[in-house]
Amino acid sequence: MAYGNISYQSETRREDLLDFIADVSPDDNPLSTLFSSGSASNTLHEWTEDFIARPTAVATEVEGSEATFSDLTNPNRRNNVTQLIRQTYRVSDTLRAIDVAGMSDMLDYQAGKAAREWKNQLEYSILNGGFASGNSGVARQMAGIVATVTSHYTTRNSGTSLSETELNDMVFDVASDVGMSDVFDMLVLPLQLRQKVSTFTAGSTKFVDASDKRLTRPVAVYESDFNVMRVFAHKDVPAAAATPGPSVLGLKEDKWKLAYLRRPERIELAKTGSSTKGMIEGEVTLEFLAERANARRSGYNITG
Question: In this structure, are strands 275-288 and 83-92 parallel, antiparallel, or unpaired?
């Protein structure tokens, strides 16, 4: 049936494209945000650590006796290597000339995305990096938290349920070994186990506003028998059922530090052909200033 003119027949309609880009990328990175940072001056980064054990017997001396001496211990040297992290991007000159929605320049947009991806890579390495000194043709890799926390690492029987007793046992293990003010104050665990912590009642799990301006969201707080800790769900903490299994990390924030040999920067590469290339590149390592102040347990039932 003739109708005159309707929209389906029109080839002169302008497109209805909103001038913004929806982005829900999972780029929450609490560790690289909260850990303090400093500088490194070599690819092998070193520091020293000391420890005084608690006495296990009463110390007495006979009146008038000569002083006796025992061997003294020296501080231990610890080290990690700097890891080169690079995120590249390239945009054709034609695309840069086209009028696109949601941005003024595709190159700047891709550079911004690369910077976010760089920080995601850093966060993953902070947790899961395995030490590799590197050589010609082989990249250096810094040791991350999972590989570093060994003094208070316990493998639970596969399928163990995470409970308040388990959590308080973690705290007790560390509190028995270090000063009370040095017991871990962050609990970092997979999303599913974070839901389990929300059901705890004895520790008065609650949400508080993030007074720390480095945090942008409310933070869950759990009060154990010995201390108060912040609770963070983290997508990069091991959660797979395969050995060693889902993990729970207890971290002392001020005992971890990022040391930059080269802070990340945007570098525009030499132009070849009809495109513009660039990269975000930086070199960094993780300092573990007192590994024994932290705890790690693995093997939990991921559903709680």
Answer: antiparallel
